[in-house]
Amino acid sequence: MVLTSHQPLADIILAQPRLAIAVSGGVDSMTLATFANMVAPDRTEMLHAVSPAVQPTATVRVRDAARVQNWQLTVTGTGEFDDPRYRDNPVNRCYFCKTNLYDRIRSLTDAPIASGANLDDLGEYRPGLLAASEHDVIHPFVEAGMAKSDIRALARELGLDDVAELPAQPCLASRIETGIAIDPNDLAFVDSIEGYLSNELGLRGDVRCRITKSGVIIELPESQMTTDIETRIEERCKINDRAFMGLRPYQRGAMFIQDQS
């Protein structure tokens, strides 16, 4: 039984009289929401934020899960694009994004807020975690000592096979090089190219469309890099009046540039 095999996580959730889970649509938050709804359905609510930086497919995934699992779901905007500190895309952009998110959630509920952060996140530079601490956000997976691999295993136990196999999908703004202003048109372009690569060309794994100061760079697993893909993306960039700088192997966090001197 899932509840028995993950009792520490269940105890953390049950220790809260109520819980508001921020659900982005990725594997971590989707798994946490599903588990919490199973353990304490009457005391758990889910909140999902929509914005130009959120992939539409993530919103569809959240809405579908809410319908099937009978979640208490609120879909809201966060207003980060009204914040010039966010739009300027500094090195700590995520701090301003999460600050707006948690401010919005707090305006909708007085329940403790929970995120899907896990142990793997603690070893990286995550300015969003500072915003979380300032809003007293709890991290059940961290408290239960769970890493990303543990969450994927739990997702499979919960019958979330498709969710368990989702590649990491941070927000679309993460594809924009630090210092380039966040523009909804750029984000829509990124989403269209990544959707084309995944849905029409059938590429799998970590697929990224990067917007850099030099132009567009596509990152793929090396095994999927072909001349045909390069030609197709170059054509699409020309149609959109964008400079195409070629393909390269996937690099995690490649657009995060700390030294901008």
Structure description:
With 261 residues, this protein is α/β, with parallel strands linked by helices. It is built from twelve helices and seven strands. It has helices at 2-5, 7-14, 27-39, 56-69, 84-87, 93-108, 127-134, 140-143, 148-157, 161-164, 184-200, 227-239; strands at 19-22, 44-50, 73-77, 113-114, 208-211, 216-220, 244-249. A four-stranded parallel β-sheet has the order 3-2-1-4, sandwiched between helices. The longest helix has 17 residues, at 184-200. The radius of gyration is 19 Å and the shape is globular. It starts with a helix and ends in a 12-residue tail after the last strand. 38% of the residues are buried.
List keywords for this structure.
261 residues; alpha/beta; four-stranded parallel beta sheet; three-stranded mixed beta sheet; 12 helices; globular
Strand arrangement across the biggest beta sheet: 3-2-1-4
Biggest beta-sheet profile: 4 strands, parallel
Give the CA-CA distance, first to last residue: 54 Å
Poorly predicted ranges (pLDDT <50, ≥5 residues)? none
Q: What is the element layout, followed by pairings?
A:
Layout: H1 2-5, H2 7-14, E1 19-22, H3 27-39, E2 44-50, H4 56-69, E3 73-77, H5 84-87, H6 93-108, E4 113-114, H7 127-134, H8 140-143, H9 148-157, H10 161-164, H11 184-200, E5 208-211, E6 216-220, H12 227-239, E7 244-249
Parallel strand pairs: 1-2, 1-4, 2-3, 6-7
Antiparallel strand pairs: 5-6
